[in-house]
Amino acid sequence: MAQNDFGTINPNTKSGTDLASDLNDFRDAQNTMHxxxxxxxxxxxxxxxxxxxxxxxxxxxxxxxxxxxLAVADATNNVARVALDNDRDTYIVSATDDKxxxxxxxxxxxxxxxxxxxMSVPIDFNGQDAQFDDATGINDGxxxxxxxxxxxxxxxxxxxxxxAATGGVPRIDATGDDTNINFxxxxxxxxxxxxFSGAAADSYNLGNLNSxxxxxxANGNIQHATMTGSFTLTAPNDTESGYIELEFTIDGTGGxxxxxxxFNEISGTVDTTAGTVNVLTIRxxxxxxxxxxxxxx
Length: 297
Known about the structure:
Blueprint: H1 16-31, E1 48-51, E2 58-62, E3 67-74, E4 79-83, E5 91-96, E6 99-104, E7 107-112, E8 117-119, E9 136-139, E10 145-149, E11 157-162, E12 171-176, E13 204-209, E14 213-214, E15 222-227, E16 231-234, E17 242-250, E18 258-261, E19 265-267, E20 277-285, E21 288-295
Parallel strand pairs: 13-15, 14-16, 15-17, 16-18, 19-21
Antiparallel strand pairs: 1-2, 2-3, 3-4, 4-5, 5-6, 6-7, 7-8, 9-10, 11-12, 17-20, 20-21
């Protein structure tokens, strides 16, 4: 390991013996990548030199202002680590044959082999789409199929999956370019579609209604109320689509007048006879709201 530069040679003063000595020293410097614990005094822009301060040499390139780490020669593990930052704790290394590991903050974050890419950190697509070929998808931890995507040429409709904050309801919706889109769920062969539920859904209590009331989908899909006087019932003004199933009971007096407002289409009639239980099914899609009225059996 050496650092040496013979400077400018003056043929009028430099003897053959001195020249040979200078060339030998320069050869040693070249053969050891100008290694040393400090930057060579004769460093030039884009010159590569080896920092031998530590046991593992760090190869650096000088950009005219700073030394940029290129790689670390790991003599302990007999591998070269490609350095990606100044403190050399972010790097790429191949410590195992046919395997490449990507480290950040000195911890392995991703491993790549001929058959698998293993991640130990979340993947952020940063606003970009993840694309899957037809009949490919996501496998579980055992390598078994978990979710398979099927493609349709020139597709314009799709499903949206929306999460929810505390108290909200996650959703799966049919969306796309078409104005009206059905939502299909299919079973295979003679199989059937089964829907599972936990505890019965809580019913939101609107209380006794006898004055103007506007329904809200945000209060929940299952709601109930008792009519204790005449009033106007207005369609939901929620910005999102959704539905409400309202159990609407008439009190012991009955005979009231119920005015329905804001509904684009109404099917059925609310029976305000004392003790009658009506079921109002309200469906809101975009800006249109539909009401279907039936009486409980």
